[in-house]
Every structure is written in structure tokens, then in C-alpha cells.
Amino acid sequence: MPKGIEIRDAHFPGRAPIDAYGNGGFRFAEMSHRGSLLCLPSGIHGWDFTEGDALDAEALSKVLDEAGEIEVLLVGTGRELRPLPQSLKAALKARGIASDPMSTGAAVRTYNVMLAESRAVAAALVAV
């Protein structure tokens, strides 16, 4: 018996370079997504985060859950570089993850290069 429309969290079950960003979203794997993204070893996930929200361990809990497979986390903080709070840097470092905040555009470009090099990289990309 049909249940009607099922709303699920946005998730692409694989790794893919980001083809474009802007206008409040991203394009990758011949798809588009409005809003922010977490690019993790488990795939690309929609991230309920907007520019100016507090960056903390709770906001990046999905990243921390996959810590064993991530060496570097690129954090695209929006249009401008925003430093990561010391408590977040410490939580990431405690799990063996180096963090590197930068503008979203720089994070997208760096992520694509590191992904092409098969590096253990993840990205938290705030939509611009």
C-alpha cells in the first residue's frame, strides 16, 4: 500500500567533485542541491547550516562520526574566511582530523584537487 511522498535527508552515496557553487547551492554528479553540504567518505549529505550559524562540534557531528576515514577537513565558511572556534579545532584534532577553514570557493577548489589525488579529505561547505 503506497505511503505517499517520503521525505528523506539529501544524500548522494558516493564521492564526487563539486562542479559549481553559488546561488545558494552546489552542483555535483549531474545533480544540484540547494543549501550547504557535507562531503564525507560515506557520501555527500545535505547540511542544515547557513552562513553565520555557530560552527561547533554539534554542527559537525557527522564529520566526527566518520573520523577514522578523514585526515583533513576543509571548512568552507561562506563568502569570507571565518576562523574555527578553538573548542571545535580541539574536538577535530582529538579524532586525528586536521581542519582548514577558508572561503567556500577556496574550499571547493581545494576539495576537488585533494579528491582527485585520492586523499582522505572531507569538506563542510556553507552555501553562498
Automatic annotation (TrEMBL):
InterPro entries: MTH938-like_sf, NDUFAF3/AAMDC. It comes from the Bacteria. CDD domains: Mth938-like (cd00248). PANTHER family: NADH DEHYDROGENASE [UBIQUINONE] 1 ALPHA SUBCOMPLEX ASSEMBLY FACTOR 3, NUCLEAR PROTEIN E3-3. This is Membrane protein.
